[in-house]
Amino acid sequence: MTEELRIEDLLQTEAEPLELPVVVVKELPGAHLKKERETKGLTVSEVAHALKFGVRQIEALEADDYNGLQGATFLRGFIRAYARYLKLDEVPLLKLLDSSAPPAQAEIVAPTNMGEASTQPFIERNQKWVMLLMALVVIGAVGAYWLTMNERSGDGDSSTIAAKSEETPAATEAATGITAPNPVALAPAAPVETLAAPPVAPGSGTVTAQAAPVAAQPAPGEKQVTLDFDGRSWIEIKDASQRVIFTGEYGSGTHQVVSGKPPFQLWVGKTSSVRVTYNEQKVNLQPYTRDEVARLTLD
Predict the structure, then answer these.
(1) What is the architecture of the domain spanning 29-100?
(2) What CATH architecture does domain 223-298 belong to?
(3) Which of 212, 215, 218, 285 could bond to 222 as cystine, CB 3.0-4.6 Å?
(4) What pLDDT band is residue 41 in, cutting at 50, 70 and 90?
(5) Would you state the pLDDT for residue 26?
(6) Rounded to whole angstroms, how far apart are CA atoms 94 and 75?
(7) How far is Cα 90 from Cα 96, in angstroms, rounded to an integer?
(8) In this structure, what DSSP letter does residue 216 have?
(9) Start-end ranges of CATH 1.10.260.40 in the chain?
(10) Taking Cα atoms as reference points, which of 241, 239, 242, 285 lies closest to residue 259?
């Protein structure tokens, strides 16, 4: 009777709740990094650009898909760099990685052909000589091609030179489109009348000098530019029609007189060696000179 009461008491007593251990699911390193990235408002592309990794590598790491990544060493360095970029402590993340994906141990398999000497192919055994032979063949082919081209170009040059020697200046101008500058036509010097010296009376002590030569006068509407060279220099002059009426390089002691219709455009090289006179007035080239070259217009 007592045993029946105990059983009934046990049945009537409410079962007390059992306390089960709380299982905490640890977050994998990639998911944790992804959450921190989204918290900071960063995109995958921004992280990939900052870390110099590919977008697919960032996505694989955040998905904790380690199969597509390059080994355990690369993976640990990848997580460390990502954590430092997000300003996180990388040590807990690396511990999570070790606990979730322990490093795989390499399986060492002994080779099946231990003690057996393998015969290498002929090309591998004589690779050095084969490469040398191929290099000699290439050099010979290039040399033969070069000699052939030189012979052809020599024949072509001789025929071209012969043809060019027969061309006239007019044909050359038509082919090149360049017209040779017209020679400078200087006004002919007017005849200078030489005055004979009057007879000198004996004992008078007076000598009469001959008259100096008179410079040629320009045509109506034209003016003159006088050039005196104290050293080697070059000069170019254009008249009002933009035609080159004087050009060339001259040495020290040269005296030139150029006539034409103004305004004149002058281009003078090494101005320190040239003296320019326009309408019997000396022209100061210094204000128009830069690096010993002057460009100016004379009205």
Answers:
(1) Orthogonal Bundle (1.10)
(2) Sandwich (2.60)
(3) 218
(4) very high
(5) 60
(6) 10
(7) 10
(8) P
(9) 29-100
(10) 239
